[in-house]
Automatic annotation (TrEMBL):
Transmembrane segments: 45-61, 100-125
Subcellular localization(s) per the UniProt record: Cell membrane
Superkingdom: Bacteria
Primary localization: membrane
Keywords from the named record: Ion channel, Ion transport, Membrane, Transmembrane, Transmembrane helix, Transport
Name of the featured protein: Voltage-gated potassium channel Kch
Domain RCK N-terminal: 143-263
GO biological process: monoatomic ion transmembrane transport; potassium ion transport
Length: 358
């Protein structure tokens, strides 16, 4: 049953088997913002006119070295005909000095002028080659990254939280089918992959087999289940955090392999209910969840001098202990003493510098 559902959402083309240059429209790695085509064309036109006038001036300086006495208009005409390689032959150099100038100066300028004329095509080829090499290098080196599938409201919030926690934008890969939201993600410095997260081929080129974590945040619960199934099949050791709208679908995601499931509708509903009774509690919870200045819930390794201490007596406001992958609340018997290898779940003060930290 699961295999039939997955095959329905998979494409016929195995994207992961395509050469790197065929992925130019699928994988986008942020780089420097390129100049507009009009500015590039305008610059090339200015360069071309500069070369034309420069050659015309050089020819005019030696105006008596040609088959006729040249005016500046004649020199400019010779410059245009010569640099464009048209070569009518009505004006030609006849003296030794004029011919030497043509060999040493005008011929190299003619080559540069021809290169300038085809500069747009060369620029496109160079840019595509650069992007191909960039994609090739990225696919070989990407490790322990986080993949966010679905860049809607939930996906963007997840990325904001990751960036606020110090994760580098180059370690976040966004997968979506909407070109406009992928452009928005790329403008934030994120690597983007165009395609459906339900397809194994798309997940493979996003590097899911080497990913540290996968955030599943599509717009519908059935898509979330399919994505989770595909991710868990390809990446058995990756941490999968999924979001669902309705609580009755939570067990489907857990059975599909999600390590953690967030119920968005119930969470929002609880906050709405609390806001009518105790709005200050909601304000504090929003502060804890916000990546801006204020407080946030964070996790850190314990220091050597904290081993054996009671976590309630530490300087940080501790909420719990993480031991061997298990979370123990501060009021549980297991959290009475800090042991080597434990990690603290605590409330951290967030400053503006923390938010800006790469």
């Amino acid at each position: 049953m699961r295999n039939r559902i997955r095959e329905r959402f998979r494409g016929d083309t195995e994207l992961s088997q395509l050469p790197d240059h065929a992925l130019l429209g699928i994988i986008n790695i942020p780089g420097a913002i390129a100049a507009s085509p009009w500015s590039l064309i305008g610059r090339r036109v200015l360069y071309a006119f500069f070369l034309l006038f420069a050659v015309a001036f050089i020819v005019y300086l030696d105006k008596d070295g040609y088959t006729e006495h040249l005016t500046f208009i004649d020199a400019f005409y010779y410059s245009a005909v010569s640099l464009s390689t048209t070569g009518y032959g009505d004006i030609t150099p006849v003296t030794q000095s004029a011919r030497l100038i043509n060999i040493v100066i005008i011929t190299p300028i003619r080559i540069a002028f021809v290169i300038l004329l085809v500069g747009t095509t060369l620029s496109v080829l160079t840019e595509n080659s650069r992007k191909t090499l960039q994609i090739q290098r990225w696919r070989k080196t990407v490790r322990n990254h986080t993949i966010v599938i679905g860049y809607g409201t939930k996906g963007r919030s997840a990325v904001s939280a990751l960036l606020a926690d110090g994760v580098s934008p180059t370690q976040i890969v966004v997968v979506d089918t909407d070109k406009s939201v992928l452009t928005r993600a790329e403008n934030q410095g994120l690597v983007t992959v165009s395609g459906s997260g339900t397809k194994a081929a798309v997940l493979k080129i996003a590097g899911v087999t080497r990913a540290r974590a996968v955030v599943v945040a599509p717009s519908s619960d059935d898509t979330a289940v399919l994505v989770t199934l595909s991710v868990r099949e390809l990446a058995p050791s990756a941490m999968i955090v999924a979001s669902v709208r309705e609580s009755e679908n939570q067990h489907l995601l857990e059975q599909s392999g999600a390590d953690s499931v967030v119920i968005s509708s119930e969470t929002a509903g609880r906050l709405l209910g609390l806001a009518t009774v105790t709005p200050t509690v909601v304000e504090m919870m929003e502060d804890l969840l916000s990546p801006d200045e204020g407080f946030s819930v964070a996790e850190r390794a314990i220091s050597e001098d904290e081993v054996g201490a009671n976590p309630r007596h530490l300087a940080d406001i501790t909420l719990g202990l993480v031991r061997s992958g298990e979370l123990y609340r501060i009021d549980s018997p297991e959290a009475e003493t800090v042991e080597p290898g434990d990690r603290l779940l605590y409330i951290r003060r967030v400053t503006g510098e923390d938010v800006k930290r790469p």
